[in-house]
Amino acid sequence: MKNLGFIGAGRMATALARGCVTANLVGAEGVLASDPHQPSREKFAEELPGARVTGENAAVLSECDTVVLAVKPQMMDGVLAEIRPHVEGRHLLVSIAAGVTLERLARQLPASTRLIRVMPNTPCLIGQGASAFALDAAATAEDAAMVERLLASVGKSYEVEEPLLDAVTGLSGSGPAFVYTVIEAMAAGGVAGGLSPELALELATQTAAGAAAMVAQTGLSPAELRSHVTSPNGTTLAGLNALAERNGSAAIQAAVEAATNRSIELGKS
After folding, report:
1. Which residue, of 3, 19, 88, 133, is most buried by count of CB atoms within 10 Å of its CB?
2. Strand, helix or coil at 269?
3. Where in the chain is CATH 3.40.50.720?
4. Is 239 marked as a binding-site residue?
């Protein structure tokens, strides 16, 4: 990749740019980000020495072939109207705006613009992202491979059909907030048992990280791993029974489904 542009220089754009530079996909000097907010430009340049910033979106299209649209969904229409005269056949546009469909993007850009829509999540900020992406009809296999490499620099990525991005949004996009809630609740239980808030949070955080790593590294299902921890009439079973009495698992599933449905609604607006 010779160059990489960003329209929007916020935290996610910074994380993606840093990941690509660290993975040697592009040199820092080949990164150019635009943002109307000067502090955002300054922060981007500070966190990625050697990268360039500008207040002009057109400059990014002029210099870069691959451009990531890293703006808030409500700003997207205005940005597309501004950049449309500058989009050429050489460009690949990658949108990370939640709920903004490929059809909506294509409608406001020149015909046959190559487009890829990505749903990242906030753990991308620490290189532990779980992202999914979908291609429009004009995007090529080479485009898909390039975006896959880009996302791999900040975690794991998966190609899906676009309608599935709503479920991805509900699961991995919103999911970190659900996991934080579980960690918070576990820590509160520890405090109720007499642990200090600091120790309880550390234990809950490491327990969640360790359990996730067990799923990822052993190849065993969550149900199998759960059975390894659960002894007849033991402490774990008592806790699981308390969860079942309060529909804990059903509540988490409902949270993912509600977030998915909201993503569908936003895509229609």
Report:
1. 133
2. coil
3. 4-162
4. no
Question: Is 7 within any annotated ligand binding site?
Answer: yes
Residue 185 marked in a binding site: no
**Annotated binding-site residue? 246:** no
Between vectors from CA 116 to CA 110 and to CA 119, what angle results, nearest 5°? 135
**How far is Cα 104 from Cα 123, in angstroms, rounded to an integer?**
27
> How would CATH label the architecture of 173-268?
Orthogonal Bundle (1.10)
- Is 78 annotated among the ligand-binding residues? no
Given a contact cutoff of 8 angstroms between Cβ atoms, the answer to whether 44 and 51 are in contact is yes
- DSSP of 164-209, one letter per residue? GHHHHIIIIITHHHHHHHHHHHHHHHHHHTT--HHHHHHHHHHHHH
Residue 173 known to bind ligand? no
Would you say 49 is a known binding-site residue? no
User: Does 11 appear as a known binding residue?
Assistant: yes
Q: Please tell me whether 70 is known to bind a ligand.
A: yes
Determine if residue 73 is labeled as part of a ligand binding site: yes
Q: For 115-151, what is each residue's pLDDT tens digit?
A: 999 999 999 999 999 999 999 999 999 999 999 999 9
- Give the global pTM: 0.91
- The verdict on whether residue 197 carries a ligand-binding annotation is no
- Asked if residues 165 and 134 have their Cβ atoms less than 8 Å apart, the reply is yes
Residues of the chain with CATH 1.10.3730.10: 173-268
